[in-house]
Amino acid sequence: MPKNFDAIIVGAGHAGLEAAFACAKLNLKTALITLNYEHIADTPCNPSIGGPAKGVVVREIDALGGMQAQAADRNQLQIKLLNTSRGAGVWALRAQIDKIKYHEWFCQQIRKQKNLTLIIDEVTDLIIEKKKIIGVKTKKDIFHCKAAVITTGTYLRSVCHFGNKQFKSGPSFQKCAEKLSKSLVKNGFKLIRLKTGTPPRILDTSINYGKMQIQPGSKQPLAFVHYKPFYRPFKDQIPSYLIFTNKKIHDLIKRNIKRSAMYAGRIHAIGPRYCPSIEDKVIKFPHKSKHQLFIEPESLKMNTIYLQGFSTSFDVQFQEKLVHLLPGFAKAKILKYAYAIEYDAIDPTQLKLNYEAKKVNNLFFAGQINGTSGYEEAAGQGLLAGINLFLKITKKPPLVLSRQEAYIGVMTDDIITKGISEPYRLLTSRAEHRLYLRNDNAQERLLKYGYKVGLVSEKVKKDYELQQKKINKILNLLKTKYVGDFTPLQKKYKCPNYTLFQLLKRPDVKLNDLLNFLKTKVNNIVCQKIEIQVKFEGYINNQLKSIKKLNNLSKVSLAKIKNYKEIKNLSLEAIDKLNRIMPEKLDQASRISGINLIDIAIIKNYVDRMKK
Q1: Which of 13, 36, 289, 537 could be joined to 153 by an S-S link, Cβ 3.0–4.6 Å?
Q2: What SS3 class is residue 481?
């Protein structure tokens, strides 16, 4: 076993895997240290990848050269494109994955990956000298490194709750990491306590699917991966099902609410606003007579279904009563009970925008330890942390994605600039420029960064450039050909002599209606890209103008300001918040809660005077 590495990654969840593969592919000698081999790439909650906003993140990860998109495509049970009845700015892919095969696929990739050493052990302490990490201590050994990424997920001092029972445990009843929290506190990090939960798992043969609404996957070919996508045939997709809660369940919960660990006051950590427990839904939304639940398969190698939307911290006996009142669940057998889990995370405002700690050089953090929730958010952070670790130790400028160019950038700015008060979840509403941050254009936005760093190959780059040439060629034809050039089109649409580009802006006109007249063919992906560019051209151009204005603030560096008390006329609140966050650029400062336009003008004036 080697003892010296360029990079050490602590944790092999979604964040840790992205960080580890990024470092190893960039020729860094990398150690991936995790507690349990069986829970590498674990999906302890919903066995799915993607969803609103999150699906775009997976596409962004692929455009940057990451792994999650490949893993999801190769191990999916079902895939859908969501929100197609709405605008392109909220379209997103969501795949139900096989959790066992997903884990096995990543384990296989670890074995094949050069420069990557897997170590099964618990990290108990960080070795830090002169404000720089130089290694880690484990229960069994000591390992040295040039830099490290901490991606411990929900395993730090974690406690599981079932009603009035609680015990120390990580997700899926695995051992937790007990000592690393103390090391973080010892080295000056502020910790916060957060909570999440998961629903029961039910024996699939014990439920009556006849009382449920079937939810099939999509018939159209869909994939997260851009280059050589893998499409799951519709005939091989496994359906999900939809049911609803009812008045009997709601009344029973209200009468017995103190049996919930959360409502009995046994849980003091903050839970996720956008993924509430069933008791939270009933108590906080009393006007709702029902809540939807999805019945989802977990794996072809398992006999369990996942009861999405029914997470709870009720005791196991009460869970039985509730589950049996659901439609089709009268004889349901619970194989794994729901639980709530509390865990330690760090206050993410202690990080720079490249995910490096402000207090300890070369130490990076990614994933749920930064206060986020979700596999996709974790993977996006892990990839950026791994890339920035490589850039730091090779003395290159960091890669910081702005909120104007990626959902990953929105998340980064939100958690590091604004901080969190609850587990953070990416939503389309968080992105001011969501019509630009679309599912279809992740490569246009981000491939250049993945290629420059070295994670995107020449083949992938050339394939993308060839596709762009096809798109530009068709756009040029649409702009130079007129409806009057084609008699059938003139008769069908009876419109002025528009260009075909203008005609395609009409909602009732599809590109496929025009391609035969242009004597050209394109695949569905290219067709969709062109339609979005044409139909939303005005909106997209307006967002690009807004982005250009915002980029002016991002050019103003605040690196030379060491203490905001030096700047006269700033309010005490502004000084306090600016000194705590220490924003790197003026645009970041403008998004700190409590900082107003007058403060920004004062800071800008101060920076300008420093230059003279």
Answers
A1: 13
A2: coil
> What CATH number does the domain containing 225 carry?
2.40.30.260
Domain coverage including residue 466: 458-543
Nearest partner of 32 among 12, 13, 59, 56, judged by Cα:
12
pLDDT value for 142: 97
Token pair for 135: 């290694």
Question: Above 90 in pLDDT, residue 287?
Answer: yes
Query: Measured on CA atoms in the order 21, 27, 28, 29, is the torsion positive or negative?
Result: positive
Distance, C-alpha 602 to centroid of its chain: 36
Q: Is the pTM of this model over 0.90?
A: yes
Which amino acid, 397? P
Q: Buried b / exposed e across 307-324, counting CB within 10 Å, b at 16+?
A: bbbbbbbbbeebbeebbe
Question: Is 76 among the domain residues?
Answer: no
Q: What is the DSSP letter of 117?
A: E
Maximum Cα interatomic distance, the chain, rounded to a whole number of Å: 79
Q: What is the CA radius of gyration of the chain?
A: 26
Where among 342, 359, 380 does a domain terminate?
A: 342
Please tell me whether residues 566 and 607 are part of one structural domain. Answer: yes
State pLDDT tens for residues 89-118. 889 999 999 999 999 999 999 999 999 999
- Could you tell me the CA-to-CA distances from 45 to 11, 197, 308, 433, 450 in Å, in that order? 17, 8, 9, 30, 30
Q: How many CA atoms lie within 13 A of 247 on its CB side?
A: 1
Which residue type occupies 255?
A: R
Do 296 and 195 contact (CB within 8 A), yes or no? Answer: no
